[in-house]
Amino acid sequence: MENTTSVNPNCSTIVDNCSTEASTNVSKNVGPYIDPMLNKANDVILITLMAVIMLSLGCTIELSVLKQEIRRPIGVGIGLLCQFILFPAVTFGLAHAFRLQQWDALGMIMLGTCPGGSISNLATYWSGGDVALSVIMTAASTAIGTGMMPLNLKKKIQLRRTIGSVMGLLAIATAITFNVLI
Prior knowledge:
The chain contains nine helices and no strands. By secondary structure, the chain is mostly helical. It has one domain. The chain is flat and about 45 Å long. The N terminus is likely disordered. It is found in: Membrane. InterPro entries: BilAc:Na_symport/Acr3, Bilac:Na_transpt, Na+/solute_symporter_sf.
């Protein structure tokens, strides 16, 4: 029976060969190659689809219903209270109850403080909910989230007493929030 395993002449054993080649190959090939043209086409298609969906949802809303929702801000107020007070408090409590590590807890709290997105409008439409309220909530939570997300993170981080190097992540959270708006 013939040995079909190739051995690097610079290594003394097959193990050395594998570990040396694996370490050099890992540093060279970080991920799969994605054609830049395909990546650009993907971006254009996704942006176009999102614009069509949001325009379609906007067309389902009557102006009188939108004005009525703005005149009665109780729904938006309750939604914002839940979005920026209740959800972050619950995620903080869960992170504390599960005794998560510092970075895991921070990630969970960041997700709990993020404002709602436009997919919630689509889910509201599909479920037969109040699309006008959902659109207003999305706009309000995105606008208010630029200040509330970093503030919530700061308060929760202070509660966990992990202010040290984590405070730099407040700047990252603010940058992420502004990136979402642009």
